[in-house]
Structures are given as C-alpha cells and as structure tokens.
Amino acid sequence: QVQLVESGGGLVQPGGSLKLSCAASGFTFRYYQMRWYRQVPGKERELVASISDTGTNANYAESVKGRFTISRDNVENMLYLQMNSLKPDDTAVYYCKLESRGIWGQGTQVTVSS
After folding, report:
1. If you count DSSP H runs as helices and E runs as strands, how many of each does the chain have, helices first?
2. Which residues of 65-100 are buried (b: 16+ CB within 10 A; e: fewer)?
3. E strands along 13-104, which residues?
4. What does the pLDDT look like over 8-59, one tens digit per residue?
5. Phi first, then psi: what are they for 108, rounded to 5°?
6. How crowded is the C-beta side of 57, counted as CA atoms within 13 Å?
7. By three-state DSSP, how is residue 42 classified?
8. How far is it, in rounded angstroms, from Cα 65 to Cα 114?
9. 4 class by beta-carbon count within 10 Å (0-12 exposed, 13-18 middle, 19+ buried)
C-alpha cells in the first residue's frame, strides 16, 4: 500500500538547520507532485513547499521562501526539505503528502528553541 514515512525532525537552536526526509513506497513516486505541510497545535495544516514530479519546479510559502529548499530523488523514492535559518515560528509537526491521492505521512516534530 501507499506509505510515506518522515524522519529527520528534532530540537534545534534558532538559526540552525535541519533536513527532513520522506521515504515513499507503494506507488510510482516519479509520476507525482509532492508537498510538505506543517501544523501547530490548534491551527490548520499549512502548505510549506511543493515540488513537481520531475523536480524541476518548486513553490514555497512566503514564510519560508529563501530559507527552505524542497527536493526529491526519483531513483531512491525520497522527498526532502532542507531547512536553514530556522526560527521559533517554524516549530511544528512536518508532514509530507502525496497530494493527488490525499495520502499523508505520520509527521515529524521540529522544535526550534534555545
């Protein structure tokens, strides 16, 4: 079955970096657009970044533009989110999503705090 498994979250100081990974299985990964979302308790999930099937096109939320980079490896069936210059406001659970089928991963917690 379709499965998305995120990893790479953790505790980081403001200004630091983290790289999130999302391992995809159960579908032909290279055919599909993928997205990263994040959610803070009590708020709706926020779209952070999206990437086209080939990886040639990417879009970002204004709040992360210039700091985050979405990428993918269509051989290894992996989605990534490189997060630099992290701020406390980036604290959230981060999810990858196979948008066209509405499939979510289980999420990985990112906490930015000194």
Report:
1. 0, 11
2. eeebbbebebeebbbbbebeebeeebbbbbbbbbee
3. 18-25, 34-39, 46-51, 58-60, 68-73, 78-83, 92-98, 103-104
4. 999 999 999 999 999 999 999 999 999 999 999 999 999 999 999 999 999 9
5. -140, 135
6. 4
7. coil
8. 23
9. buried
